[in-house]
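Page 47, continued from p. 46.
Same chain as before, 193 aa.
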Amino acid sequence: MKKMNLPNKLTIFRIILIVPFVLLLLGESSGWGWYRALFGGILEYVDYISLGIFIIASLTDLIDGKIARKYNMVTNFGKFMDPLADKLLVCSALIALVEMGRIPAWVVIVIISREFIISGFRLVAADNNVVIAASYWGKFKTTFQMVMVCLMIANIPQLQIVTDIVMWIALALTVVSLIDYLAKNRGIMSEQK
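Result:
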């Protein structure tokens, strides 16, 4: 059995970080008794600790891809798990933020729906031996979604207007990137094997 390379280890690490991230973020609002006993002395800092974990997890996404491409460590495992780890991290954060009342559920439904549509589209494309590159719209969307999640986790009242603006930009980019993606690759769905 081959030893797992560094980019794949970082991807697995990102998935593992989701557990403490969600537990810390949701603990206070979920009324878990053990949570208050364990973190009672630092409750006012829990959002910032959660934010730190989210930022570290997000940075592993940047690092693992660069290492994999630079040192020719791209694997089938990485191709499958890296985007899955990203979606798990972002979707976990968004669902937790809905639970906490920091983001409207319908915004999260739009964002997650876009991810499902694109994932399905990529599967059809792969089945037709077509590789679809990420677009700039998609990259902008990801950047604004990450910034939005960070602002919502930090939950700083003085930045609420900025948080709302970033949310609306992220939402607009989610829709625009979906339309752009489908328009540029509309022939995929009609192609036959």
